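Tutorial handout. Part one gives the primary structure; part two gives the three-dimensional structure as C-alpha cells.
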Amino acid sequence: MRDTIRLSILVPVYGTEKYIERCARSVLEQDTQYVEYVFVNDCTKDKAVDVLNKTIEEYPNAQSRIKIINHEKNLGLAGARLTGLQNAEGDYVWFVDSDDYIERNAIAELLPYMDGVNDLIAFNYMYDKDGEISRFTEKPFTVSNVLINAVSPSIWKCVTKRSLFFDNGIFPIVGINVSEDYLLIARLVVASKKTIFLDSQYLYYYELGNDGSYMHNPDLKSVENIVDASVIVARYYIKNGMAKQYKNAL
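Part two.
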C-alpha cells in the first residue's frame, strides 16, 4: 500500500457522535484511490465509534485503506493527532477533525500540489453554523502572519508533507490541547522550504456548533497550554537561528 498512498487523512474521534457520520462520508466519498484514512478513538464516551463503524460498512472499496486505532486511555487532541501521524503512511497528511468535514472533490483538487516539492499546502475554509455556510478568506500564509495570528493557525487548513514533521522533530505534544494547532503551524511554516496558499479554493468546513468537542471546555489548564505553546515556539526559533529575523512577530 505504501507505494500508492499519497495522502493520509488523520481523524481524532472524541465526543462527535452527532457529526462523525458526516465527516466520514465527506472523506470516504472522495474520488481517489491514493488516500488512506486513520481514525483515532481517544476513548470517546459517546457512540461516535459505533456510528463510524456502521458508516464505514457502506464503503467496501475503501476498507483496505481504513485504520481505526483505539487509545487505552484518553490522551487529548494532541495525543490523538500524534497517534494518527505515527501511523500514517502517506507522503502527505491532512488532519481533519471529526466534527468537521471537507469539500466534495477536495482531494482531487489538492493532489496535483502533492508533488514532493511543496512542503505545506494551505487553503481557505468555510464556517458551518447550524447549516448556515459562510466563507472565510485568509490573509497570505506567511511566517509573520502566522506568528501574530493574522491568519488562523489551524492545522486542518493545511496539507503537509509527512517528512516535514519527522525531519524537523515537529510533533504534537501530549497534554497541550489548546494552542496545539499554533504549536504545530508556527514551527512547520518556518521549517517548510516551499509553502503555497491556494487562496481561491475553499476546501474545509469548520463546525461551530459542537459544544462537546475538545475545544469547547476552557479552564486554567487552557491558559497554561497557551503559555507553554508560545514558549516552545520561541525556543524553536531561537534554537534554529530564526529569532532575530522574526523578532517583532514573536
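Part three, for discussion. The longest helix spans residues 220-239. The chain has a mean pLDDT of 93.
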